[in-house]
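REQUEST ID: PR-0412
SUBMITTED BY: lab tech R.K.
PRIORITY: routine
TASK: structure prediction, single protein chain
INPUT:
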Amino acid sequence: MSAKIKKLTETLSQLIANSEVEGCALVSTRGQMMAAKLGKDVDDKAVSAMAAALLSIGNRVGEALDSGPPKNILIEGERKMVLVRSIGNATLIATAPADAKVGLIDFEMDKVAREMEQIL
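STATUS: complete
OUTPUT:
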């Protein structure tokens, strides 16, 4: 494991430790997994491809509605929520319980995003 990937993985661990996030990953905008702290039953390749696609669609919707690129994309499911955030040429994706405190997760994702920008 390269030093950069190790630092990114440690940063993902911080996000999990400091919030209600259960799993998270950093994905390139091309859909390649860069670092992950996801559950064992999660298909990393599928998640990375879909996260990149989701952010791409969010960007296109933002352009069409003249709102600019999205800061966050939030999917509220029955059992979990999924948060997606753009970080330069990468996408941070995180999962949390459906009743998690979104404000705290957003705050922690901001911190992690700043750290990751320094690493990348």
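NOTES: The helical segments are 3-18, 44-64, 102-119.
REVIEWED BY: pending
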